[in-house]
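quick one, 335 residues, struct below
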Amino acid sequence: MFFRKKIGIDLGTANTLVYVAGEGIVLNEPTVVAYSIEDKKILAVGEDAREMIGRTPGSIVASRPMKEGVIADYTTTSAMITYFLKKGLKGGVYWPEVMISIPGGSSQVEKRAVVAACKQAGASDVYLIEEPLAAAIGAKLPISQASGQMIVNIGGGTTEIAVISLGQLVVYKTVRVAGTKLDEAVMTELRKKHNMIIGERTAEDIKIKIGNALVDDKVGEERKMEVKGRDFQSGLPKIYEIGEKDVNLALIKPLKGILDGIKEVLSQTPPELAADIVDKGIVLSGGTSLLTNIDRYITYYTGVSSFVVEDPLFCVIRGVGMAIENLDSFKDAIR
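---
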């Protein structure tokens, strides 16, 4: 009997991470594929393809095949999973067992699309695990106990909000507002206020460098950043210095979308579990929880203390990895 590799995949809207049992996280690349329009041939995947976003000629498209946590382009996603599996296993793929994370409350159609894409990529068995559960396992929360744990996983395409008790999701909600929507808000703000057009990558850089969920007027010097883009009216290149407060104004609306989701989940939580959450606080994970002061923002508006786990970007993949290495103990969590 030959030994089959166990692989965990966190197929995110912004980044895809691959975990190989016994080796740990072997791959962390952007979920981007570049292909030529004429013969639908895939030219680049991951980091190489991300470099091409917004810089391709008409015959090449660099796109994100996952939209808001869901497979938007099936063939491209399947080819991308094949590429990531090959790269993660250094070429030798022998029908590995794959566990992949999906948004909480995904429809049957969405689940089938993920399973089919993995099978086409060469997986023998495909297990699905809901993202909030994987994030909670990765954050080392004691999810099997009879007490409430609240996790908010803010990724690139979706924010997964869930209350977990006895190893299952009690209340959950997927809000289709996350990192990408924050980038779009920055782009819109610059176009409206300063007549300036910038691309997705620049918007993401602004968010990472000077994005702030809760600007405190008492704090001294505000952070500023030089932005290069194109003038909306003249069409000529333009350089503008943008400050933290401008970015904060842009982020208010999408952040409120995330906050409303958290409030809705809290309002549906049974009182005993709500009491547990007040004691333990809200756990934040996912790449977008790295946004400055997002924990303070959530604490301020909900009255419940929140904190970001360490390495929030790797939280889901750590959970997927732990679950595939200990399949028997996580049987209940796996679909």
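The mean pLDDT is 87.
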